[in-house]
Every structure is written in structure tokens, then in C-alpha cells.
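User: Please run a holo structure prediction.
Assistant: Happy to. Please share the sequence and the ligand.
User: Here you go; the ligand is heme C.
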Amino acid sequence: MHRAVLVATAAAGLIASPTLAGAAPDARVGADVRGVAAQVLPAGLPRLPPSPPLAPEAARAGFTLPPGFRIELVAAEPLVQSPVAIAFDARGRLWVVEMRGFMPDAAGRGEDAPSGRVAILEDSDGDGRMDRRKEFLDGLVLPRSVAFAGGGVLIAAPPQLLFCRDAGGHGGDSDRCDRPQVVSTSYGTAKNPEHDANGLQPAIDNWLYSANLDQRHRFLGGRLVTAPTISRGQWGIAQDDVGRLVYNTNSDYLRGDALPAFTRAAHLRQSRGLNVVLDPDRSTWPARPNHGVNRGYQSGLLRADGTLSRFTAACGPHVYRGDQFPPAYRGNAFVAEPAANLVRRSVITQQDGGGLAAHNAHARGEFLTSTDERFRPVNLATGPEGALYVVDMYRGLIQHRIYLTKFLRQQVAERGLEAPVDRGRIWRVVSDAAAPAPPPKLAGASDLALVAQLAHPSGFWRDTAQRLLVERQPRDRATLAALERLVARAPDPRARLHALFVLEGLGRLDVTGDGGTRARGGARRLLARAGQDRDRFVRAAALALVERGEEARLAALAVALAGRARLDAAALARVRGRELDLLGHALATPAWAAASEGRAHMLAQLGARVAARGAPAELLQLLELVTAEPREAAWRQAALLTGVAQGRRGGSARLPEPPRGWARVLRSDDPAVSARAQALAAWVGEPVPAATTGAAARALNADERARFARGKALFPGICGACHHPSGGGDEGKGPPLVDSPWVLGPVERLVRITLHGLRGPVKVNNRVYEMEMPAMGALDDAALADLLTYVRTEKEWGHEAGPVDPATVARVRKQVAEREAPWTEAELLKLDP
Ligand code: HEC
């Protein structure tokens, strides 16, 4: 494929880092770039002319695709504006989330206005182009996602999840949501649109998964249930045919889980094979110069021809599960890169050990490129007919103000990229090899017809049939028998998997539940048979479902044990190998809240047995159970640590990573806890951080306390977006700040890191990270002093280093005013404060 690089003819772009979405502005953030060094185009790059908005047809002419594919316009302004996410309902109608409040101008003024909308687009004449629009819900502040669930529609508008029941999309008449119900108020933080929850991706296990959030959701008995999982990715999330999730961060374009979402291990931070980099090669191959990216001044980010050399705004990862593209494309990952005006296609391959890897399908090229700087693909989906849909926000500036650099601000001003913001397009890529299938009529289909669709070759049809069946909850023998037949005999393993999870969604696979002995027997037999399936994913699903029954048994055991004095041999035998799980249930059970000698004894017994096995991942999990306990439960921490001391082997524990929050336990104000933890410190391999030992830091004065409070409020939306709101680090996004010598050590280094960022490798608590932190110098001296005071003195983290005042930040800023590049570890270590 030939991809001409247009130099100088078209304008270069802007944008940059991650993506979008949801929050009220904080006047102090990003308001001032004083002190940031000159940020100029690297030598040799010519200035580019403006890039005025193009009409859809002209924009279409700028696309390049592999032979055998074409791209068609599905919708454009005024039918759609600032689209950021889409979903297809059971009638094939296109639902679109419009984030019209995103960066209304280069200062982000008005982003807290309730201008966001969710609309339904319809193609009434079947030509593939939308011609009708219905307002479903408006008045939203930076809405981010839409999904069909629980017989209604879920809409993400952090920090809320909204639900509209009996509205649109599934045979109901109402295509308007007049009274959305707030079903969650902890969906994200609404503090930083580039780092907030989004996604609501339905997976094969009947749960909805989100990016940037450690929660998953599903409807059970008509109510939204939330359960913990690991936090994944940044903007966009998708599943493959067997329920493995893929996601990404702005620079790390494809990450994913080797474990399907239906496995229990897929939700534990300690599991291996979760959140792994699928392709270490981050290079991009745009068709036009991209001078206007946020960090375009950094050497090497732009090539000599002005094209962006690597991902900086990767988002909207998607797995193609349709049947309209040729077979080689099925199961491929597609990723949007709005900063480089392209869509990547990567081939995912299965490694020998079960792990996943991926590589660019087009050597030194891309699946879809555009020469139009305003082409901003931010999300992807497969339509019911099997086309690949591209959600194009169509605007000049898509970098959010929080990280907007002076460099990009200049590009925007020089080349008129700020306006207009009322455009938006949805495109579809169609293969010439097959005619697109007609739209689905699943909403009115009978239950048995839906069961048959579970064997459809296209993912949309299988997923939608599964969702509708679970929503309808059929109880008749014919439907249930058809589902069981599918589990036993469908030739396509994907159909067997779907049928299994429909039965799960109907409550038919509960081996311990109250469905009666006959139902339990039937479920056991069915799962036993599926456990012998030829396909390893069907076998894994059956095991996971049996496991769920096992979990219920452990939960019941935990309740029963709460009144005992110790674990007898019989009870110990029953939980052999599952002590950690039993501990998890016990600690979560109200009956274990009050201290008693018996309960303390049992916690120690269980802890000792886990420690005696000496498996590093288990030990880490055990220690994190200790660190996660609240202060009121010091007796439980002491009991567990007693057990660890009894069971531990010699040498060191060789943990895969330091336990989160260990410093807090070391310095617990309960002497029984701190003494036991300190006795174990060397074994755990995590001695008390040097910078915080010695004389206790002086108490903060009133001014410093106010700084701390402001910093604490700012932290989750700014530093916490990458370093996790707990400061404990977030895999793939940022290393831990808790216990970090960079935080607790010399202020001179810490201020430099925040002003200009840091480029890896960097060692934090015995682990080397190799990523890049962006410059945070757009924050003013006062805001930085607030944040740094907070991170250095947060007692919850066990931090007692001194506060930081604005004058210190101002002084360092002046000293390094000429600097542009991020710091390296070596440079920082050379500083002699
Ligand atoms: C956009 C993501 C992002 C944001 C926002 C961010 N960081 Fe970082 N930070 C990183 C990454 C990634 C690294 C590791 C860089 C490397 O590998 O060299 C890092 C490294 C660090 C380090 C050194 C390593 C460590 O863990 O101690 C410190 C200290 C730090 N950041 C502090 C902060 C503070 C304070 C803020 C808020 C003012 C902040 N960061 C905001 C991503 C971020």
C-alpha cells in the first residue's frame, strides 16, 4: 500500500494525548503556563498552513485504505455533533453519545455546561446512511458511553451512571428518556476528562466492563450490581470472541488480558497475564505531518517529514468480530489514533504459553489514514452488517486543557484550530468482498429464534441475542432445552460459550443455589459435560462457573465459622488450598467485624497456612489483605501478621512487587501491628523508607494544612489519574508514589519531575519502570505546592516528609526555565540538593 506523506500542503494537527471526558473545570488547573520553557518546532520542520474544516465528501477523498475496502459516510453534522461513542440496538439503530462540552474553546470554557446528548440515528431507506435523528436524552455534562442492559439503556456521565428503563432499543415505544434514574454515583471522578471511567462494554459473562475504573456492573433481579475488578486502560475497551478484554493507554496502543473476563483470576490484581502489553512497537505511520501534537517540540516525536513517530493519543480499541470483512481480518484489533489521523489494524496472535501478542498488520503503514488534520477517530465498533464504524469527533483541538502545552496552544492560535466544534462524523469501512447484511430484527424475535442467533457467525448478533434472552428471562422448557442442546452440540465453540452464559444469566447454573435439588443436579451435570468440552475456553468457562459455586460455599463457611474458637482438622481439610479465599470472605463478613479470641486465632491459623506455602503471589495477596484493613480493625491485622510470622519460611519472601500500603502498617499507631510488621520488614524485603525514618516530621501549620487539603482534593484528578487515586500506582499508567523515594526524598528532584515530566527507566521500590510522565508545568506554583505537600505528608500512606511551599516551586521553575525535555533518572540522581 502506498501512503504518500503530504508535506506542507495540508495543515498539521494538534492534539495529543489521551482522550476525553467528564468534569467540572478547576480554574487553577492549566490556567497558567508561566515559566514553561520555549517550546518550538524541532529544527528543519517547516511551518504548516492552517487546515480549514472540510465538507464530508472532501474529507472522504483524503482517506487511504487497503485495496478491497471502501469508506462511506454514515452521518455528519448537523445530524451528529462531537460524537465520542456509539452502540447498535437490537433493531440496528445507531445510538450516539455527543460530548459537545469537550474543549468548547482552547481554554476549556463552558465544559461544565449540560450540553451533552444521547441520540438515536436511523437509516429509514436502508442505504447505509442515517437520515433520522431522535433526541433520547440531553442536558448531560460530558457524557462518555452508552450501553443496553437490564432491559433499558445505561449512560455514563461521571461520576454518575444513568439508567433509562423501558425506553427505546428493545421493542419498547419510548425513544425518549424523560426521567433517567441515577444507578451509581461512583462511576469515575469527573475530575479529568482524559482519565475518567468510560466503556460499558458488555462481555460474554453478562457483566459490563469499563476502562479506567476498578468496577464492573450487571443487572441482577432488576438492580444494578457493582463488583470489583482491576482498572483497565484509558479510553475505550472491547472483548474478543471468548471474552478476553483489550484496552490501551494513550501511548501504549494495545494492552489486554490473556484470561477471559469470566475467570475469577481476571479480577485480581495479583493474577499473571492481566493488563499486559500486546505490542511493544509503538511506531505510527501517518499520511500527513502532525506538527500540532501536544509534545511536538520534543526531539524524535516528529520525524523529519513531520509525521508523528509513535502513539500519543491511542484510544477506542476494538476487536473485529463481524463476518463482512475477509477471514484474515476477523479477530484483528483496530485502534484509533486521533493525533495522527489514523486507524491501526493489528493481528493478535496466541503465544505458546496461552499469552497474547500483537503486531501491526501493515508493515510501516496503517489500515486507515487521512490527510485531513481534523479527522479525529476516537472510537470504533462493528455494525450489525459487519462494517467497521469509525466515530470521528471532527475538530481541530482534542487535547484537554489540563495537559495543553504552550507549544500546542501556539499551533492552535497560529493555524485556527480552535473552532468550529460543532462538527462530527460517523464513517463505516466496508469490504468489497461481500454485500453488507440487512439490518437485524432481533427485538421482536421469539425466544427460540434468539437461541438460534447465538450461533450466528457475527459477534453483534450473538451478543445481542444473549442480552435479550437474559433480559427476558424465559422459563419455558422448550427454550431451556434448546439452550442446553446448544451447549452440548453446537458445532461452533463460540455458540456453546454464549449458550452457557445465557443459562448463567437465567440463574440455571447455580450449583449451590436454592433452585431445588433437581435444578442443582441438572446444572452440575451440564457443567461437568462442558468441563470436558473439546474447546479450552468452553472448559474454562465451565470451571469458572463451578468455581462460582465453590465461592458461595466458602462464603457460607465463613459465616458459620464466625462463632467458633478455632478451626478443627475437618474444617481445615475442607479449605485446603483455599485459605486465602476463605480469609477474603471472612474479612468481608459482618459477623467477623467484632474482635474475639476465637476469630483472631482462626485468622492467624489461616494466615500461617498461606505463609507456609511460600508462594509469592499468594503472600502478596495475604499482605495486601492486611494492609487494606481499616484502622478500627487493627486486631485483625495483628492476628494475620502473627499468622504470617508463624508460617513464614526463612530467607526473604521474594514478592513480585511491594505490598500496597505496607508503610502504613509499619507505622501503625497500634503497637501490636507496627511491632509485628517491623519484625517482618526484612523478610518482606521492604524496609522502612529511609527518608521517613528518624525524627518524626514537625506538625504542619495552618497554612500548610490548608495546602494539604487543597492538594488532597486535586490529587485524584491530576496525579491520581496515572498514579491511581490511592497513590499506589496503576499498571501501565504510573508507578506508585506511596513509599517512593522520589516523593519522600529531595524536593528539588520532585519539583523537577512534576515541571517537565520523567522519561524511563526509573527505579521505584525495587522495580524498574520504563514509561514517560508528561510535563505538569502548566499547573501554577500554588497548585503544585498543594499537590506536592499532599503527596509528601499523607499519613494514610505513612508519609511524613516535609511540606513544599510555592516559593520553592517558583525558584526551581526559574532555575530550569530553559529546559524542555523530560528528566531522566540519571540526571535527577546527579543533582546534589
Ligand atoms: C499522565 C500520567 C501521569 C500524571 C498525570 C502524573 N504522572 Fe507521575 N509518572 C507517570 C509515569 C508514567 C511515571 C514513570 C516515568 C518513567 O517511567 O520514567 C511517573 C513518575 C513519577 C514519579 C517518579 C516515580 C515514582 O513513582 O515516584 C513521581 C515522583 C511522580 N511521577 C509524581 C507525580 C506527581 C506529583 C504528579 C501530579 C502533579 C504526577 N506524577 C502526575 C505518569 C504520570
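Residues 1-37, 168-172, 690-696 have pLDDT under 50 and may be disordered.
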